[in-house]
Write a structure and sequence with these properties.
mainly alpha, about 85% helix
Length: about 400
Amino acid sequence: MKENVNKLDAPSKRNLKVGIILLLVFFGLWYIEPVSNFVIRTYAVLRPILLGFAIAFVINLPMNFFQEKVFGRIIDPLKHRKTVLVLSLILSWLIFFVGITVIILVVIPEIINAVETAIVNIPQFIKSLEEFTRQFPPINKLVLEAEQYVSEFDVNWAANKVTDYITGEGSDIINSASNIISSVSSTLIAIVMGFIFSIYVSINKKNLKLNSNRILYANFNEERADQINYVFKLTYDAFSRFLESRLLSCLILGILNFIGMKILRLPYAGMISALVGVLDIVPYFGPIIAAAFGMIMIFIISPIQAVIFIVFLVILQQVQENVIYPLFIGKQVGLPAIWIFVSVFLGGRLFGILGMIIFMPIATVLYTLLEDNTIKNLKENNMDRITVAEKAQKSFEEMREEKQNDNF
């Protein structure tokens, strides 16, 4: 049998891939401006489609619940499959539109009012804090310095800037109008496409999954196809779990915060509860920001009530993490704290609030893949957990002594 002399061995394939990647990186950096402009224009064209897929993804989450847990148990899914699909789809879209309406008409105005109220009342907050800390001279000195800084700061300008950022308004009237028109048209297109995609995906879900796997395994070897399939399913699972858990958690936290503040007779219960619930979707930073705004608003009225609010919020968040989360959401695949912090920080620096939200499930995917690869490589190197733990516990002096003994 004649061998194929043109076939590359494994090291040659690996070197070829590395060479191609380095070549693409070189040309990407050399032509960074036209490449970035091309990416921006491509994103502008694909934005309605991407938003449509995102909406379809969100719609599919409650739809799966209604199919499996509600209508699938009431109606025979084998005999009336289309009826179950249609009812689940209609109810999911109703929930989606009701949620969007509540966010636009209730949540966003309350958040804007809370932010504006807190920022405008910062001078009064500093003054009240200065009076409250007079019996503590070191702290009072710091408050006086902060008061001098705030007196030179344009609070109204900051409030307007924050409001503009939340509402997405620009400083230039023409650009603002064009942005609003473009945003509204893109959103309408995205909603229509999301509606079409959600219907198509829900009705042809099994066929789409089967056909996509046929294409995947037809063009890649089984091992590579399994890995790609695994990554896609891991990504879908990470994003769906994140949305389901965080949205439900934010809703429960906002409602319990409102009930608790009413029981404790704390002011601004509606505004602060909306802020606490919405910002809880951002790990670490969200609860801190919500607590700061709430404390500023309440402290002006009563410093004691502000302290009560902070204590109540800390207790409520502990109850949420240790009772509500396991009870209503179940056990989730968690990230180490440092991964959560870094993902939120990088996401915020790169893409703002949206980046803080979406970078956490992305970090979950990367962490899971890294952990899988680490376990695989440890097995190949015949390293178990006990051996690794023993090596990790060794001090520098012990390792240096072993190294010196090996050299003799």
